[in-house]
Design brief:
Blueprint: E1 7-16, E2 24-29, E3 51-53, H1 55-65, E4 69-73, H2 81-93, E5 97-102, H3 106-111, H4 115-122, E6 126-129, E7 150-153, E8 167-171, E9 177-181, H5 185-192, E10 200-204
Parallel strand pairs: 2-4, 4-5, 5-6, 9-10
Antiparallel strand pairs: 1-2, 1-3, 6-7, 8-9
Length: 205
């Protein structure tokens, strides 16, 4: 029996209200071959980088955070489906919810012959699927960037997808600034104006 692969984690946020309904933990993974034009996270395209982390330790950290569940983002979660399926299943066993973002269409994911893709789908409560389209900016729905992206309720546990978009800005003890949530480029530019060059790190959708 093979070991579950490590997850290449680019960022872990213990608590956020900008990455799905309620207060959630969020995991951004490193690596995405889709590479949508205009993506806010081009620094997560390359497969190298991130911190290799066991699924078990990620589950423990999500549970310890005391949130309602976890949101999986990237990068592309389904390109690390084996490790994240284990994370999602562990979080669900703890009674928490799982929201997963993907740049792949739902039909493509459902037709995949990869058992790990199927496992991650089966352990996801709410899936947001479809590539980001910068010509179809969505200014009405929360959490998504473009109108082509679908909300797919794979269970009834995260039925409420209403609420405002939020932007969160986190400043570390060393002065590094991290931004997460969704906003258009003009809004982000205005938000980050005047900050020291090189200190801001967006992690949005």
């Amino acid at each position: 029996m093979s070991e579950t692969p490590l997850v290449r984690v680019a960022r872990f946020l213990d608590r956020t209200t900008a990455e799905g309904p309620g207060e959630r933990s969020a995991i951004w993974v490193q690596g995405c071959s889709i590479r949508c034009a205009g993506c806010f996270n081009p620094h997560l395209f390359g497969p190298r980088g991130g911190t290799p982390t066991t699924p078990e330790s990620l589950v423990e950290r999500v549970v310890a955070a005391g949130t309602s569940g976890v949101t999986l983002l990237g990068g592309e979660p389904f390109e690390q489906a084996a490790g994240l399926a284990a994370v999602a299943a562990g979080v669900r066993r703890a009674g928490l919810t799982v929201m997963t973002f993907s740049g792949y269409e739902y039909a493509y994911l459902r037709s995949s012959a990869d058992e790990h893709v199927a496992a991650l789908l089966s352990a996801t409560d709410l899936l947001v699927a479809g590539p980001f389209r910068q010509d179809l900016i969505d200014r009405d729905r929360p959490w998504v960037g473009s109108t082509n992206q679908e909300f797919l309720h794979l269970t009834g546990r995260l039925a409420d997808v209403t609420g405002p978009d939020r932007i969160e800005v986190t400043v570390s003890a060393t002065g590094d600034i991290a931004v997460n949530g969704w906003a258009d480029s003009d809004t982000l530019d205005a938000l980050l104006a005047g900050l020291p060059a090189g200190r801001a790190r967006p992690s949005a959708r």
